[in-house]
Amino acid sequence: MENRESGIPITRNTLFAVASGTKFLTALAIGKLIDQKKLSLSSKAKDIYDLKMDFIDPNITIEQLLAHTSGMADYLDEDLLDDTKPIYFDVPFKELINPKDFIPIFSKDPQKFNPGEKFNYNNQAYVYLAILVEEVSKKAYNDYINNDLLKPLGIIRSGIYYLDHYPPHTALGYLNSDEDSLTNLGLLPYQAGGDGGAIFSIDEMRLLWEAFFDYKIISKELVDQFIYPQIVVDEKTNNYYGLGLWLKKDIDGIYPYLMGGDPGISFTSSYKPLTKKHKFAVSNTSHGVWDIFDELKKL
User: Fold this and answer.
1) From residue 15, how far is each of 201, 204, 269 by CA, in Å?
2) In this predicted model, what pLDDT tens digit does every residue of 49-100 receive, in sequence order?
3) Is 295 left (phi over 0), alpha (psi -120 to 50) or beta?
């Protein structure tokens, strides 16, 4: 059900939250600005917007933020999360609306390692990238994603919205599969900050993948860099990371995929450019996708 209380069923047009799938949108926004010569992969983030935090290395580049190799500490360190406990910050979730609203909750810990040294998944890096999108484009992050990135592709329902202004047929997120389960309202930021928060339907996700590989969003040169393995995440399972994209290697070569999870959200999508096969698995529960993930991979 999209809404269990109202008895509204899920359909092919249902919009679902994609959590960290949002990072791909943030990366694409940065890519568009790079193609417009307004910044480059080698640009230092501090030169565009200085967070004035001495514990963050001033030499971190856009590329390192995109590739999760910045080494900065993370306000939402997934290595330390406990799925059984809710997350609380000093700033209420309802006040987390724009990327800069997240700055007060940025981690005050020192760098985990020197920039470019290794991979460590980092949500804070993508909030910082969203701040840079706003600084360079002179537009609000959500406006840039919805109007400059998605609408020209014919993607008009999916995107980034304030929690109280979701489009019709957006699925409510539930904490588990029980009929009387609580929703995730109040447990997530009220609008995307760059690292999560977007909503998508299956058909518009496919449109996004197709536009990406048809070079309708960013240049072929940048697409090639986005899908080039920047870092090995797990060589045993053939998992890598590019720029804003997870990468997997199999008999069809290297292809990109997205993953996202939050309270009331589980999501994954991939696209194989050689075969044009699109995979999209999404649930408005915390574990719905992960419960079938191994079987999905076999298929």
Assistant:
1) 5, 9, 14
2) 999 999 999 999 999 999 999 999 999 887 666 554 567 688 889 999 999 9
3) alpha
Q: What would be the CATH architecture of the domain defined by 16-298? A: 3-Layer(aba) Sandwich (3.40)
Tokens, residue 166: 């979701």
Tokens of 94: 């309802």
* Locus of tokens 């998944």: 121
Distance from C-alpha of 264 to C-alpha of 237, rounded to nearest angstrom = 27
User: Cβ of 20: how many Cβ atoms within 10 Å?
Assistant: 22
Length of the chain counted residue by residue = 299
> What gap in Å lies between CA 207 and CA 245, rounded to an integer?
17
Residue ranges of domains in the chain = 16-298
Provide CB contacts within 8 A for 110, sequence distance 6+.
Answer: 55, 73
Tell me if the pTM is above 0.90. yes
Does the CA dihedral 15-20-24-29 come out positive or negative?
A: positive
